[in-house]
Amino acid sequence: MFLKNKRAMVFVAAGLALCAAPALADKDAGNGGDISAILELTADPAYGAYLAGECATCHASSGTSQGVPRIAGMAREDFILALVEYRAGVRDNQVMQTTAARLSDEEIAALAAHFSAQ
Ligand code: HEC
């Protein structure tokens, strides 16, 4: 029984190490982050609501104005993809690239949870 558990522990530890490796490799590649990894984070919508304060200056909840798209109600996947692409510089927009560059994976996940729930 003891031996069996110990083996299971080793197996789990090896599995975790394997999972962590590609995520780190992605970060090193400087591609802005792994979208599926951000989707798997436990997101805190309340923290997202707090962070969203700085977005509201441009992204009015009522709709588009002066070329700023509406982001309230965006699907989580689309929202995360957009921010990761701005952060990586793949999607071109100076303001959003600067904004996204300051956001961590956890903050993007929290913002996605907040806006997708609107
Ligand atoms: C200074 C104005 C400004 C601020 C502040 C700002 N944005 Fe933006 N955002 C824009 C503009 C302009 C675009 C459209 C850029 C483009 O054409 O790609 C945009 C696009 C986006 C998009 C893509 C929308 C789509 O339909 O593809 C997302 C998501 C987004 N912003 C999220 C945020 C979040 C989250 C914050 C706050 C952390 C934020 N923005 C703060 C101006 C702003």
List the helices and strands and how they pair.
Blueprint: H1 2-28, H2 35-40, H3 45-51, H4 76-88, H5 94-101, H6 105-116
Helix pairs in contact: 3-6, 4-5, 4-6
The structure holds heme C (HEC).
What does this structure look like?
This protein has 118 residues and is mainly α. The chain has 2 domains: 1-30; 31-116, Cytochrome Bc1 Complex, Chain D, domain 2 (Orthogonal Bundle). It is 62% helix and 0% strand. It is built from 6 helices and no strands. The longest helix is centred in the N-terminal third of the chain and has 27 residues, at 2-28. It starts with a helix and ends with a helix.
Summarize the main sheet: none
Write the H/E string, N to C: HHHHHH
Distance between the termini: 50 Å
CATH homologous superfamily of the largest domain, by name? Cytochrome c-like domain
Stretches where pLDDT is under 50 for at least 5 consecutive residues are 8-30
Strand fraction band?
A: under 5%
State the CATH class of the largest domain.
Answer: Mainly Alpha
Mean pLDDT over the full residue set:
79
Give the C-alpha Rg. Answer: 18 Å
Spell out which ligands are present.
heme C
Known CATH architecture of the largest domain: Orthogonal Bundle
How many DSSP E strands? 0
Number of helices: 6
User: Can you tell me the number of structural domains?
Assistant: 2
Secondary structure: helix percent: 55-70%
**Class from secondary-structure proportions:** mainly alpha
Task: Using the alpha-carbon principal axes, give the shape.
Answer: globular
CATH topology of the largest domain: Cytochrome Bc1 Complex, Chain D, domain 2
